[in-house]
Each structure stands twice: as C-alpha cells, then as structure tokens.
Design goal:
By secondary structure, the protein is α/β, with parallel strands linked by helices. It is built from seven helices and five strands, in the order βααβααβααβαβ. It has a single domain (9-162), classed as 5'-nuclease (Rossmann fold), CATH 3.40.50. The chain has helices at residues 15-19, 27-42, 52-59, 64-76, 87-99, 108-119, 136-148; strands at 9-13, 46-50, 80-81, 124-126, 156-158. InterPro entries: PIN-like_dom_sf.
Length: 171
C-alpha cells in the first residue's frame, strides 16, 4: 500500500502513450492507457512529464482534430513539460545512443525521449513502442551506456501495463 510519506514515482511519457488514448484499433491497450491516465488524474501516485519532443511529434499529426485532442491531454491531465535548459546535454546523450547503436539513427526522437528521462532523473520512461524503447534489451543497453558515461540513475523503460497500480483487490 502506498504510504503518505512515500515519494511519488516520476514518469516521462513518450508520444505513443498519449496517442493510445485514441487507439480504437487496439481496444485492450487503449483501456490500459485510460486506466493509467485515471491514476494520473488522481494525482496521488505519479508526477508525469513530457518534453518538447512529445509536443513536436504531436504537432506532426496530420489530422487537426486529433492533434488538438492530443495537445489538450497535456493540459487536462496536468502533465509537466520538462524545461529545455539542458538541451545540449540531452542532444549529446541522444547522439551517443545513436552512435552506439542503442537506437537506430532514423529514430532520433526515441533517443531524445530516453535522454530527457535520464538527464532529469525520471524513474520511468513509459512507452507503447516495444521495438525501440519498451523492452528488456533496450532498457539494458541504455543502462549499460549510461553507466559507461557516468549516468547512474536507474531508469526503467516500460509500458503502461507494467506500472504498479496500488489498491488492487484482484490479488
């Protein structure tokens, strides 16, 4: 049970998590995403962050109605946008992930999502991107590179299904 003196978990959302609120083609993952956002709205367990990378990806959405809905999620759920004052450090870290082959060069946004979470010492990077982010291999490679270059904060890279929901009576 979550004690009142327990620290909130810091979670960074990549764009896929916000997108899955509208993923009618995968209803089971949409439902998990909606459940996660219900806990976010509650405000007791998590401090949730996004970055300019997320906003820029949303702004590339072709459908103006969907784009407006996605942007409104950030405000309506009280997501905190991380500042840009560490841009040089984050860009350099993302470049290291690309150069070491942790993330494919064509997926620079994914490398930047990781860099934001690492530089700001976020506990969890939450993503539905199984291929480039939310899998054991990627998490391990990120942690190895981070340790090699002096970032020792133990970030986790998981899906919304792996976030611990307290008060579950189904056990």
């Amino acid at each position: 049970m979550l004690g009142s003196d327990m620290k909130k978990i810091k979670i960074y959302l990549d764009t896929s998590v916000i997108n899955f609120l509208y993923a009618d083609d995968v209803p089971e993952l949409k439902k998990v995403t909606e459940e996660f956002f219900a806990y976010v709205k509650e405000g007791q367990r998590y401090d949730v962050y996004v970055s300019d990378v997320v906003i820029n990806e949303i702004n590339k959405t072709n459908d103006p109605i969907k784009k407006k809905k996605l942007i409104s999620i950030i405000e309506s759920y009280g997501l905190t946008k991380l500042p840009n004052f560490k841009d040089v450090e984050m860009s350099a870290l993302a470049e290291i992930y690309l150069n070491k082959g942790v993330i494919p060069r064509s997926k620079i946004e994914d490398a930047l999502h990781i860099a934001y979470a690492v530089v700001f010492e976020i506990d969890v990077l939450l993503s539905w991107n199984f291929k480039h982010l939310a899998n054991i291999k990627q998490e391990r490679e990120v942690l190895i590179v981070n340790i090699e270059i002096g970032y020792n904060y133990p970030i986790r890279i998981v899906t919304p299904m792996e976030v611990d929901y307290e008060d579950s009576n189904d056990i």
